[in-house]
Specification:
- By secondary structure, the chain is an alpha/beta fold.
- It is about 30% helix and about 5% strand.
- The chain has nine helices and five strands, in the order H-H-E-H-E-H-H-E-H-E-H-H-E-H.
- The chain has a five-stranded parallel β-sheet with strand order 2-3-1-4-5, with helices on both faces.
- Helix 3 packs across helix 9 and helix 7 runs antiparallel to helix 8.
- About 10% of the residues have low confidence.
């Protein structure tokens, strides 16, 4: 049956497939159908209710051949493809593990102006080297370790401070009494008598002073120590100082008369002031240094500056000929 409005209707159950002429007319009036996948890549979304199936014009009809349609332009990808890295040759080091050249490294941090300073450890002090016979030793410009021995009231602390402050080389004064009084609770007061606690604290103070002297001397600083060392206890007295400081320690005895010692002791205060009986006993024991070979200074008629000057002279002779003790 022929209809005036166009080609005959298709049989029931089949859609009309336009021919070449009808496809041309339909292309002139309607835009080409773009598949859903391409529309999503191009950023477009199908309207609600639109047919998302493939248009019948692109379906294959048996006996009619493949439909003719215009080719679609390729859609560029959202991100350009990254080329695959070529495999590294066998035995090659990855580029990430290869350090940059020295010219590209950041400059090293500048050293700190202040910080931890390594100090030489204190070793036992050796005997001072004797000057040539034609020269005289200058005790004021030599790094020395001096032990000033004397009874209470002999003026050891005053002379040691004055001597240390006026030398031409750095010098430290290490007082045994000051170190011993670091102990606060449980301090063994000499006025209460001699016991095991006072003995232990004296030994501990001597060892601490000896370590301090070695550290000062190892760093170029002279030191002078003062202690009431008894000649009748060589193991605890000079023997202990020799073990703590070293054989280069120069002992000098400061021993004024008993009247001078008693007068100076009366001017002291606190636990450093002893009874007259104890002062007399200590002074009598100190007399045993006569004939020991150690240099002895009787400062009964000397003030502090004059005693310090005599001490320099005695030390100059001790440097040239160290005493055997």
């Amino acid at each position: 049956m022929q209809h005036a409005g166009g080609p005959p209707l298709p049989p029931p159950g089949r859609r009309a497939v336009p021919g070449r002429a009808g496809a041309a007319r339909q292309a002139a009036n309607e835009p080409p159908t773009v598949p859903l996948g391409l529309r999503l890549l191009q950023g477009g979304l199908p309207p609600v209710g639109a047919d998302c199936a493939v248009d019948a014009a692109t379906a294959h009809e048996p006996g009619l051949g493949s439909p003719v349609s215009e080719p679609m332009a390729p859609v560029p990808p959202a991100h350009p493809p990254v080329p695959a890295a070529a495999p590294a040759p066998q035995g090659a080091v990855p580029a990430a593990s290869v350090p940059p050249p020295a010219s590209q490294l950041p400059p090293p941090p500048s050293p700190e102006v202040t910080g931890h300073i390594r100090l030489p450890s204190g070793a036992p002090v050796a005997m001072p080297s004797a000057p040539p016979p034609t020269e005289t030793a200058d005790a004021t410009a030599t790094t020395l370790a001096v032990l000033l021995i004397g009874p209470a009231g002999a003026g050891k602390t005053s002379v040691a401070k004055y001597w240390a402050e006026r030398r031409r080389v750095p010098t430290a004064h290490i007082s045994l009494d000051d170190v011993r009084e670091w102990v606060r609770a449980g301090f063994a007061d000499p006025q209460s008598g001699w016991n095991d606690n006072s003995e232990a604290q004296y030994r501990l103070a001597r060892r601490t002073c000896g370590f301090a002297a070695r550290n000062f001397l190892a760093n170029g600083i002279s030191c002078i120590l003062d202690d009431a060392v008894f000649p009748d206890r060589p193991v605890i007295g000079l023997g202990g100082w020799k073990r703590h400081v070293g054989p280069g320690l120069l002992p000098v005895v400061l021993l004024p008369g008993l009247e001078i010692v008693l007068e100076r002791n009366a001017q002291r205060s606190g636990n450093r002031r002893l009874s007259d009986e104890e002062v007399a006993s200590i002074h009598g024991r100190m007399a045993g240094w006569y004939g020991s070979g150690l240099p002895i200074i009787d400062n009964s008629q000397l003030d502090v500056p004059a005693t310090a000057q005599v001490l320099d002279e005695v030390l100059g002779r001790a440097i040239a000929s160290p005493p055997q003790w």
